[in-house]
Amino acid sequence: MPLFGNTFSPKKTPPRKCASLSNLHLLDRSTREIELGLEYGIPTMNLAGQSLKFENGQWVAESGSFTGDRREMQRLRKRNQQLEEENNLLRLKVDILLDMLSETTAESHLMEKELEELKNHSRRRK
């Protein structure tokens, strides 16, 4: 016997007669957009005075909205390319220097080992 009265037992809901009474699901996408007003257009945003739009999965500057100089953009791209090439050259130089260091260290260890063997050999003769 329950402590506070009857146990909770909700009534079952009757089954639905039809999933949808609207025929809009039968229309194609363009007709639905016109009927329901779902035409949003291309997403756009404004950053630092430059208007960008989202097309084919990428943000693209709108034509005519670029307030900077095209020559400045080309200069920056060229400078970026130069810096990338310089970075690649410096990485190559670091790799070469590390190889040289490891080679020199290995030679040094071999010479120390030979010197130690010569010392031990000369001690045995005495």
From TrEMBL:
GO cellular component, as recorded: nucleus
Transmembrane segments: none
GO BP term (any one): negative regulation of Wnt signaling pathway
Cross-referenced InterPro entries: Chibby_fam (IPR028118)
Highest taxon of source: Eukaryota
Residue stretches in coiled coil: 66-121
Keywords of this entry: Coiled coil
A Pfam family: Chibby
Keyword Nucleotide-binding attached: no
Protein name, entry field: CBY1 protein
Originating species: Eudyptula minor
